[in-house]
Amino acid sequence: MSESARTPRDRSATEQRILGAVGTVLAREGFAAIGVNAIAREAGVDKVLIYRYFGGLPELLQAWGASGRFWPRIDELLGDDPQTLLARPEAERWAAFFEHFIDGLRARPLTIEILAAEVLERNALTAVLEAEREAWGEEAARVLAGRALAERPELRTLTLLLVAGVQYLLLRARRIRIFGGLEVQSDAGWQAIKQDIRRSAVALFARPDPPPT
């Protein structure tokens, strides 16, 4: 079938196959070996379509990073009822963000493998995904935290440390069951982590009493 005869559904299905192949090739071969030819073979398409639909490998990785396959999108973190979540107090929004973030990463074992590979090798392609995550972080802060992070910069640092800590624990959970007394391979262990984050949020976002006059 010629390109002009393809329906939008045909193109969309092909794009989805190509995007799916990106993660498979990354997990299997790592960033050093990934290329248009390998992705095209995995997707079962002519590599010309990758250039036609995405522009090239960096643009393809950017599209993959933004697709939600690699990293939870903001709408996923907002849950099934975004308006209700955004109307909640800051502490509840912050706790819910981490609950959804943890669940989102745990549901993406391929992402954990790719994060592990990133630790060992950094290049122009890993930089594309890093840029996507930085943009994600800015959007998450704007949508979920509101004025709190701007008014209290220390909360931004604590949030960053927790985001990094969640990723680190998931990386360690690839090989070990217990870390610091926590069951990092079990649902129960992660439920305990989420409960502790929620309890911490109440204290972190409590409004301090005004100083005495």
Write the layout of secondary structure elements.
Elements: H1 8-33, H2 36-43, H3 47-54, H4 57-66, H5 74-77, H6 82-86, H7 90-106, H8 109-120, H9 124-145, H10 148-151, H11 153-172, E1 178-179, E2 182-183, H12 187-204
Antiparallel strand pairs: 1-2
Can I get a quick summary?
Helix content is 72%, strand content 2%. The chain has helices at 8-33, 36-43, 47-54, 57-66, 74-77, 82-86, 90-106, 109-120, 124-145, 148-151, 153-172, 187-204, and strands at 178-179, 182-183.
Which properties best describe this structure?
single chain, 213 residues, mainly alpha, Arc Repressor Mutant, subunit A, two-stranded antiparallel ribbon, 12 helices, 2% strand, globular, TetR/AcrR family transcriptional regulator, transcription, Homeodomain-like_sf, HTH_TetR, DNA-binding
Describe this structure in words.
The chain has 213 residues and is an all-alpha fold. The protein folds into 2 domains: 3-66, Arc Repressor Mutant, subunit A, CATH 1.10.10; 74-204, no CATH class. Helix content is 72%, strand content 2%. The chain is built from 12 helices and 2 strands; from the N terminus they run αααααααααααββα. It has helices at residues 8-33, 36-43, 47-54, 57-66, 74-77, 82-86, 90-106, 109-120, 124-145, 148-151, 153-172, 187-204, and strands at residues 178-179, 182-183. It has a two-stranded antiparallel sheet with strand order 1-2. Strand 1 (178-179) and strand 2 (182-183) form a beta hairpin. Helix 1 packs parallel to helix 8 (109-120), helix 4 (57-66) runs parallel beside helix 9 (124-145) and helix 7 packs antiparallel against helix 12. The relative contact order is 0.10. The mean pLDDT is 86.
